[in-house]
Amino acid sequence: MITTEHTSKQFDAELEAVRARVLQMGGLVENQIRLAVEALTSGDLDLMNRVVADDHRVNAMEVEIDETCGQIIARRQPAAGDLRMVMTVIKTITDLERIGDEAAKIARMAKLLAQRERLNLPRYNEIKHAADITLDMLRKSLDAFARLDLQTAAQVVRQDELVDEEFRAIMRYLITFMMEDPRTISTSLEILFVAKAIERIGDHAQNMSEYVIYMVKGRDVRHVTVEEIEREAASS
Amino acid sequence: MITTEHTSKQFDAELEAVRARVLQMGGLVENQIRLAVEALTSGDLDLMNRVVADDHRVNAMEVEIDETCGQIIARRQPAAGDLRMVMTVIKTITDLERIGDEAAKIARMAKLLAQRERLNLPRYNEIKHAADITLDMLRKSLDAFARLDLQTAAQVVRQDELVDEEFRAIMRYLITFMMEDPRTISTSLEILFVAKAIERIGDHAQNMSEYVIYMVKGRDVRHVTVEEIEREAASS
């Protein structure tokens, strides 16, 4: 055993390293979404394959960070704020991994869509718009996590309502499209699944922001209203 | 401080209590799915409302068990198998909570569907069949968790392929249905979202079974093939 102070510095460094690793994982996942949507809109088959192939990198990071957290708990016996941080990391990486899955799903749907005849396909403007909002939410969630920023976290929770609204708009639009020309039904459903994947990315980003509020305030806000979360964030 | 042995017995009792609570939460969630599907097929509006209203009970259990796990980590400083058990619980309840969300989603879709004209609606046989498989998966996952049973856990992972196949069959069937009568498109999409919710329940049950394998074997099998998981389970 070295001195307590040294041990604590070491511990700080370990926590800092695991936080940095989460942000790296977040950056990778963010890139996967960006590339998946780019592949969808451009029809770039190589890019689609790359996104699907790279999903294992996201998975590997989840397993690795999870193990690190287990080691920290076993060796450092964190309490209070430190423990909340470790538990937040464990939960955050589960959501990041599932966002990675959704990005791979978008890339796989893009492959199916690229193989179809171009039956007056919609040009993905709405999809791109919804994806931009969720990318912004993901970035903000990671920022909120990095800087323990409650206001940003609360903004993300509010933004998720916007994504849900976008999803419903895309669905209404696709229904009209299918009714006008039933030959587009299969294609429209694939686009709908892309929209659903984007909506879920928004949900995961929202979860991540709620964990940040929990980490900072020690209060679990996963099942309260947006208004309460905003009050909680404002009272910091 | 009491004797180590007593402390350890106390600790065992705490772990046992938290495991029992997870199984209780699992039973509640299982019931929510069963009632949601019953409400869908029977058109029973009271039942639909009850499932939606009861979702908060699932959420409250998640928050409570999460807090208990945090306290156990902070006070008991679990290591090795005990720590893996606590981490498994933390992950399992996240999936159980999301299964609860999917059950509430099914109940909400059932409400929308009950309000529609009966335009030659399919009779939900396929939906019921897929739901029965996922209910079986959930029960087996909880059993595997309770009895640390690797073979059962491996079966669940294999069963998820069946659910995915059922989902694709329902989708093909709904596409035919929509093409034959475009007036059924909105209704069919709602049924498709019910099927999607059931498919996701299967995914969550699969996650839970993979955590059990991790807990028992100390090996993370979340991102390996079904064959590898079966080998892992057989080598116990």
TrEMBL record, chains A, B:
Keywords: Cytoplasm, Phosphate transport, Transport. It is found in: Cytoplasm. Residues 23-109, 127-212 form the PhoU domain. It holds the Pfam family PhoU. GO terms for cellular component: cytoplasm. One of its GO terms (biological process) is negative regulation of phosphate metabolic process. Gene3D superfamilies: Phosphate transport system protein phou homolog 2, domain 2 (1.20.58.220). Belongs to the PhoU family. Plays a role in the regulation of phosphate uptake. Homodimer. This is Phosphate-specific transport system accessory protein PhoU. It comes from Ferriphaselus amnicola. The lineage of its organism: Bacteria, Pseudomonadati, Pseudomonadota, Betaproteobacteria, Nitrosomonadales.
